[in-house]
Amino acid sequence: MIIQEMTMSEFEEGLKKTKTVIVPVGTTEEHGSHLPLATDIIHVYEMVKEAATRVDVFIAPPVFFGLCRSTSQHPGTINISGDTFRSLVKEIVISLYTHKMRDFIIISGHAGGTHMSSLTEVGELLLNELPEVNIAIVSLFELIGKECLDVIETDGDGHAGELETSLVLYSKPHLVKGLGESSYPQIPPYFLIRDKRKYWHTGVWGNPTKASAEKGKRIFDIAVDKIVNLKKEFEKFKG
Ligand SMILES: [Zn+2]
Question: Residue 239: is its pLDDT beyond 70?
Answer without folding.
Answer: no
